[in-house]
What does this fold into?
Amino acid sequence: MENEVKTSPVITPEQMLEHWQGHRSLTRRTIEAFPEDKLFTHTIGGMRPFSEMVIEMIKMAAPGAKGIATGEWGEWGTFEADGLSTTPKTKEELLELWDWSTDQINHWWAKIPAGRLQEKDVAFGQWEGLTWWHLFYFIDNEIHHRGQGYVYLRSLDIEPPFFWER
Amino acid sequence: MENEVKTSPVITPEQMLEHWQGHRSLTRRTIEAFPEDKLFTHTIGGMRPFSEMVIEMIKMAAPGAKGIATGEWGEWGTFEADGLSTTPKTKEELLELWDWSTDQINHWWAKIPAGRLQEKDVAFGQWEGLTWWHLFYFIDNEIHHRGQGYVYLRSLDIEPPFFWER
It folds into this structure.
Protein backbone atom coordinates (compact mmCIF):
# COMPACT_ATOMS: atom_id res chain seq x y z
CA MET A 1 0.00 0.00 0.00
CA GLU A 2 2.69 2.47 0.99
CA ASN A 3 4.58 1.69 -2.18
CA GLU A 4 1.45 2.10 -4.27
CA VAL A 5 0.93 5.57 -2.85
CA LYS A 6 4.51 6.57 -3.53
CA THR A 7 4.35 5.65 -7.18
CA SER A 8 0.85 6.91 -7.98
CA PRO A 9 0.69 10.27 -9.72
CA VAL A 10 0.22 13.48 -7.73
CA ILE A 11 -0.21 15.71 -10.77
CA THR A 12 0.42 15.07 -14.46
CA PRO A 13 2.76 17.24 -16.54
CA GLU A 14 -0.24 18.56 -18.48
CA GLN A 15 -2.00 19.57 -15.24
CA MET A 16 1.23 21.10 -13.94
CA LEU A 17 1.55 23.34 -17.01
CA GLU A 18 -2.08 24.41 -16.69
CA HIS A 19 -1.54 25.11 -12.99
CA TRP A 20 1.55 27.24 -13.68
CA GLN A 21 -0.10 29.19 -16.50
CA GLY A 22 -3.19 29.65 -14.33
CA HIS A 23 -1.05 31.30 -11.68
CA ARG A 24 0.66 33.38 -14.37
CA SER A 25 -2.72 34.54 -15.65
CA LEU A 26 -3.57 35.75 -12.14
CA THR A 27 -0.23 37.52 -11.84
CA ARG A 28 -0.86 39.23 -15.18
CA ARG A 29 -4.15 40.60 -13.85
CA THR A 30 -2.33 41.72 -10.69
CA ILE A 31 0.16 43.68 -12.84
CA GLU A 32 -2.73 45.23 -14.74
CA ALA A 33 -4.40 46.32 -11.48
CA PHE A 34 -1.46 48.62 -10.62
CA PRO A 35 -1.53 52.25 -11.73
CA GLU A 36 1.40 52.72 -14.13
CA ASP A 37 3.51 54.85 -11.78
CA LYS A 38 2.82 52.83 -8.63
CA LEU A 39 3.88 49.64 -10.41
CA PHE A 40 7.41 51.00 -10.67
CA THR A 41 7.61 53.12 -7.52
CA HIS A 42 5.30 51.98 -4.70
CA THR A 43 7.03 50.13 -1.86
CA ILE A 44 6.44 49.17 1.78
CA GLY A 45 9.12 48.62 4.42
CA GLY A 46 12.05 49.12 2.05
CA MET A 47 10.97 46.30 -0.26
CA ARG A 48 11.20 46.35 -4.06
CA PRO A 49 8.45 47.85 -6.23
CA PHE A 50 6.15 45.18 -7.69
CA SER A 51 7.66 45.72 -11.17
CA GLU A 52 11.03 44.44 -9.92
CA MET A 53 9.42 41.36 -8.37
CA VAL A 54 7.71 40.71 -11.71
CA ILE A 55 10.99 41.03 -13.60
CA GLU A 56 12.45 38.42 -11.22
CA MET A 57 9.54 36.10 -12.09
CA ILE A 58 10.19 36.68 -15.79
CA LYS A 59 13.89 35.83 -15.34
CA MET A 60 12.85 32.46 -13.92
CA ALA A 61 9.94 31.72 -16.27
CA ALA A 62 11.09 31.26 -19.89
CA PRO A 63 14.80 30.68 -19.08
CA GLY A 64 13.75 28.21 -16.37
CA ALA A 65 11.40 26.30 -18.67
CA LYS A 66 14.17 26.14 -21.27
CA GLY A 67 16.65 24.94 -18.63
CA ILE A 68 14.33 22.19 -17.49
CA ALA A 69 13.62 21.12 -21.06
CA THR A 70 17.18 21.24 -22.38
CA GLY A 71 19.68 21.49 -19.52
CA GLU A 72 20.81 24.82 -21.01
CA TRP A 73 20.23 27.40 -18.30
CA GLY A 74 22.32 30.37 -19.30
CA GLU A 75 23.52 32.84 -16.70
CA TRP A 76 20.98 33.85 -14.04
CA GLY A 77 19.27 37.13 -14.91
CA THR A 78 20.40 37.33 -18.52
CA PHE A 79 18.29 36.25 -21.47
CA GLU A 80 17.17 37.38 -24.89
CA ALA A 81 13.52 37.86 -25.76
CA ASP A 82 13.22 38.01 -29.54
CA GLY A 83 13.90 41.72 -29.70
CA LEU A 84 11.74 42.75 -26.73
CA SER A 85 13.32 44.87 -24.01
CA THR A 86 14.42 42.68 -21.08
CA THR A 87 14.52 45.77 -18.87
CA PRO A 88 10.93 47.00 -19.27
CA LYS A 89 10.27 50.56 -18.15
CA THR A 90 6.51 50.75 -18.76
CA LYS A 91 3.54 48.55 -17.88
CA GLU A 92 3.05 47.84 -21.58
CA GLU A 93 6.65 46.65 -22.00
CA LEU A 94 6.35 44.53 -18.85
CA LEU A 95 3.16 42.87 -20.10
CA GLU A 96 4.72 42.24 -23.54
CA LEU A 97 7.60 40.43 -21.85
CA TRP A 98 5.10 38.57 -19.67
CA ASP A 99 3.16 37.36 -22.72
CA TRP A 100 6.36 36.39 -24.52
CA SER A 101 7.24 34.30 -21.45
CA THR A 102 3.83 32.60 -21.56
CA ASP A 103 4.46 31.43 -25.13
CA GLN A 104 8.03 30.38 -24.32
CA ILE A 105 6.87 28.26 -21.39
CA ASN A 106 4.36 26.46 -23.61
CA HIS A 107 7.05 25.99 -26.26
CA TRP A 108 9.66 24.51 -23.91
CA TRP A 109 7.18 22.52 -21.83
CA ALA A 110 6.32 20.38 -24.86
CA LYS A 111 10.02 19.48 -25.17
CA ILE A 112 10.59 18.26 -21.59
CA PRO A 113 11.82 14.66 -21.90
CA ALA A 114 9.94 11.92 -20.03
CA GLY A 115 11.37 11.47 -16.53
CA ARG A 116 13.25 14.77 -16.69
CA LEU A 117 11.47 16.30 -13.67
CA GLN A 118 12.97 13.60 -11.45
CA GLU A 119 16.52 14.34 -12.67
CA LYS A 120 19.07 16.44 -10.82
CA ASP A 121 20.37 19.61 -12.44
CA VAL A 122 22.10 22.81 -11.41
CA ALA A 123 19.63 25.59 -12.21
CA PHE A 124 21.31 28.59 -13.79
CA GLY A 125 24.64 26.98 -12.94
CA GLN A 126 24.09 27.85 -9.28
CA TRP A 127 21.32 25.89 -7.57
CA GLU A 128 21.52 22.09 -7.43
CA GLY A 129 18.38 20.02 -7.06
CA LEU A 130 15.82 17.86 -8.81
CA THR A 131 14.25 19.72 -11.69
CA TRP A 132 10.73 19.44 -10.16
CA TRP A 133 12.12 21.39 -7.23
CA HIS A 134 13.35 24.15 -9.49
CA LEU A 135 9.97 24.24 -11.24
CA PHE A 136 8.08 24.47 -7.95
CA TYR A 137 10.47 27.18 -6.82
CA PHE A 138 9.64 29.32 -9.87
CA ILE A 139 5.91 28.95 -9.20
CA ASP A 140 6.10 29.35 -5.41
CA ASN A 141 8.32 32.42 -5.76
CA GLU A 142 5.69 33.96 -8.05
CA ILE A 143 2.86 33.20 -5.59
CA HIS A 144 4.96 34.64 -2.73
CA HIS A 145 5.73 37.92 -4.45
CA ARG A 146 2.28 38.27 -5.99
CA GLY A 147 0.88 38.00 -2.45
CA GLN A 148 3.13 40.92 -1.58
CA GLY A 149 1.77 42.79 -4.60
CA TYR A 150 -1.71 42.27 -3.15
CA VAL A 151 -0.63 44.14 0.01
CA TYR A 152 0.79 46.94 -2.12
CA LEU A 153 -2.54 47.18 -3.97
CA ARG A 154 -4.58 47.12 -0.74
CA SER A 155 -2.34 49.83 0.72
CA LEU A 156 -3.23 51.90 -2.38
CA ASP A 157 -6.93 51.19 -1.75
CA ILE A 158 -7.13 49.01 -4.89
CA GLU A 159 -8.88 45.63 -4.81
CA PRO A 160 -6.64 42.82 -6.13
CA PRO A 161 -8.06 40.09 -8.41
CA PHE A 162 -9.65 37.09 -6.67
CA PHE A 163 -6.91 34.64 -5.62
CA TRP A 164 -8.94 31.61 -6.69
CA GLU A 165 -9.55 32.85 -10.25
CA ARG A 166 -6.85 31.54 -12.60
CA MET B 1 6.96 11.41 -26.87
CA GLU B 2 4.08 13.69 -25.90
CA ASN B 3 2.32 10.77 -24.29
CA GLU B 4 5.49 9.77 -22.46
CA VAL B 5 5.77 13.23 -20.98
CA LYS B 6 2.15 13.25 -19.91
CA THR B 7 2.45 10.04 -17.96
CA SER B 8 5.91 10.53 -16.44
CA PRO B 9 5.90 11.70 -12.82
CA VAL B 10 6.17 15.39 -11.95
CA ILE B 11 6.56 14.84 -8.20
CA THR B 12 6.04 11.78 -6.04
CA PRO B 13 3.62 11.75 -3.08
CA GLU B 14 6.61 11.48 -0.70
CA GLN B 15 8.24 14.57 -2.27
CA MET B 16 4.91 16.39 -2.18
CA LEU B 17 4.53 15.81 1.56
CA GLU B 18 8.10 16.98 2.16
CA HIS B 19 7.44 20.05 0.00
CA TRP B 20 4.27 20.92 1.92
CA GLN B 21 5.87 20.41 5.33
CA GLY B 22 8.89 22.42 4.18
CA HIS B 23 6.62 25.34 3.40
CA ARG B 24 4.87 24.86 6.74
CA SER B 25 8.20 24.95 8.54
CA LEU B 26 8.92 28.31 6.90
CA THR B 27 5.48 29.62 7.86
CA ARG B 28 6.09 28.53 11.46
CA ARG B 29 9.28 30.61 11.53
CA THR B 30 7.35 33.52 10.04
CA ILE B 31 4.79 33.29 12.87
CA GLU B 32 7.66 33.20 15.39
CA ALA B 33 9.20 36.34 13.86
CA PHE B 34 6.14 38.43 14.80
CA PRO B 35 6.04 40.24 18.13
CA GLU B 36 3.13 38.75 20.11
CA ASP B 37 0.89 41.81 19.90
CA LYS B 38 1.60 42.61 16.23
CA LEU B 39 0.75 39.04 15.24
CA PHE B 40 -2.84 39.66 16.33
CA THR B 41 -3.21 43.36 15.56
CA HIS B 42 -0.89 44.65 12.79
CA THR B 43 -2.59 45.24 9.44
CA ILE B 44 -2.03 47.12 6.19
CA GLY B 45 -4.72 48.46 3.86
CA GLY B 46 -7.63 47.01 5.84
CA MET B 47 -6.36 43.43 5.52
CA ARG B 48 -6.52 40.79 8.26
CA PRO B 49 -3.81 40.48 10.92
CA PHE B 50 -1.35 37.66 10.13
CA SER B 51 -2.82 35.53 12.97
CA GLU B 52 -6.13 35.34 11.11
CA MET B 53 -4.42 34.31 7.89
CA VAL B 54 -2.60 31.58 9.84
CA ILE B 55 -5.86 30.34 11.35
CA GLU B 56 -7.23 30.07 7.79
CA MET B 57 -4.20 27.96 6.84
CA ILE B 58 -4.81 25.75 9.88
CA LYS B 59 -8.45 25.27 8.89
CA MET B 60 -7.27 23.91 5.53
CA ALA B 61 -4.28 21.88 6.75
CA ALA B 62 -5.35 18.97 8.97
CA PRO B 63 -9.02 18.93 7.92
CA GLY B 64 -7.90 19.12 4.26
CA ALA B 65 -5.42 16.27 4.63
CA LYS B 66 -8.12 14.20 6.31
CA GLY B 67 -10.58 15.05 3.54
CA ILE B 68 -8.16 14.02 0.83
CA ALA B 69 -7.32 10.79 2.65
CA THR B 70 -10.86 9.78 3.61
CA GLY B 71 -13.42 11.83 1.67
CA GLU B 72 -14.69 13.09 5.05
CA TRP B 73 -14.30 16.86 4.95
CA GLY B 74 -16.51 18.16 7.69
CA GLU B 75 -17.89 21.69 7.55
CA TRP B 76 -15.46 24.39 6.41
CA GLY B 77 -13.89 26.20 9.35
CA THR B 78 -14.99 23.78 12.05
CA PHE B 79 -12.75 21.05 13.44
CA GLU B 80 -11.62 19.50 16.70
CA ALA B 81 -7.98 19.42 17.74
CA ASP B 82 -7.61 16.90 20.53
CA GLY B 83 -8.48 19.39 23.25
CA LEU B 84 -6.42 22.32 21.89
CA SER B 85 -8.18 25.64 21.41
CA THR B 86 -9.22 26.07 17.77
CA THR B 87 -9.53 29.83 18.33
CA PRO B 88 -5.99 30.60 19.56
CA LYS B 89 -5.54 33.96 21.28
CA THR B 90 -1.77 33.85 21.92
CA LYS B 91 1.29 33.05 19.81
CA GLU B 92 1.88 29.96 21.95
CA GLU B 93 -1.64 28.65 21.36
CA LEU B 94 -1.30 29.37 17.64
CA LEU B 95 2.00 27.47 17.44
CA GLU B 96 0.54 24.54 19.40
CA LEU B 97 -2.28 24.28 16.89
CA TRP B 98 0.28 24.61 14.07
CA ASP B 99 2.34 21.71 15.43
CA TRP B 100 -0.76 19.60 15.97
CA SER B 101 -1.61 20.23 12.29
CA THR B 102 1.88 19.10 11.25
CA ASP B 103 1.38 15.74 12.97
CA GLN B 104 -2.13 15.39 11.59
CA ILE B 105 -0.94 15.99 8.03
CA ASN B 106 1.71 13.27 8.39
CA HIS B 107 -0.91 10.95 9.90
CA TRP B 108 -3.47 11.41 7.14
CA TRP B 109 -0.94 11.57 4.31
CA ALA B 110 0.08 7.97 4.98
CA LYS B 111 -3.57 6.95 4.50
CA ILE B 112 -4.15 8.55 1.08
CA PRO B 113 -5.16 5.70 -1.25
CA ALA B 114 -3.20 5.17 -4.48
CA GLY B 115 -4.68 7.23 -7.30
CA ARG B 116 -6.74 9.35 -4.92
CA LEU B 117 -5.09 12.65 -5.95
CA GLN B 118 -6.50 12.22 -9.46
CA GLU B 119 -10.05 11.69 -8.15
CA LYS B 120 -12.74 14.36 -8.03
CA ASP B 121 -14.17 15.41 -4.70
CA VAL B 122 -16.09 18.32 -3.22
CA ALA B 123 -13.73 19.87 -0.67
CA PHE B 124 -15.53 20.81 2.55
CA GLY B 125 -18.79 20.08 0.75
CA GLN B 126 -18.38 23.30 -1.24
CA TRP B 127 -15.54 23.24 -3.79
CA GLU B 128 -15.55 20.63 -6.55
CA GLY B 129 -12.30 19.59 -8.20
CA LEU B 130 -9.61 16.94 -8.42
CA THR B 131 -8.07 16.34 -5.01
CA TRP B 132 -4.57 17.37 -6.23
CA TRP B 133 -6.12 20.75 -7.01
CA HIS B 134 -7.46 21.07 -3.47
CA LEU B 135 -4.03 20.08 -2.10
CA PHE B 136 -2.22 22.64 -4.23
CA TYR B 137 -4.78 25.24 -3.19
CA PHE B 138 -4.00 24.66 0.50
CA ILE B 139 -0.26 25.07 -0.16
CA ASP B 140 -0.56 27.99 -2.58
CA ASN B 141 -2.91 29.82 -0.23
CA GLU B 142 -0.32 29.44 2.54
CA ILE B 143 2.49 30.78 0.32
CA HIS B 144 0.26 33.68 -0.76
CA HIS B 145 -0.63 34.78 2.76
CA ARG B 146 2.84 34.12 4.16
CA GLY B 147 4.18 36.49 1.49
CA GLN B 148 1.75 39.05 2.87
CA GLY B 149 3.07 38.34 6.36
CA TYR B 150 6.55 39.16 5.03
CA VAL B 151 5.32 42.65 4.06
CA TYR B 152 3.79 43.08 7.53
CA LEU B 153 7.16 42.12 9.07
CA ARG B 154 9.13 44.45 6.77
CA SER B 155 6.72 47.29 7.58
CA LEU B 156 7.56 46.62 11.26
CA ASP B 157 11.28 46.75 10.40
CA ILE B 158 11.65 43.01 11.11
CA GLU B 159 13.59 40.75 8.72
CA PRO B 160 11.52 37.71 7.65
CA PRO B 161 13.11 34.23 7.38
CA PHE B 162 14.82 33.41 4.07
CA PHE B 163 12.19 32.27 1.55
CA TRP B 164 14.39 29.46 0.24
CA GLU B 165 15.00 27.85 3.65
CA ARG B 166 12.40 25.16 4.32
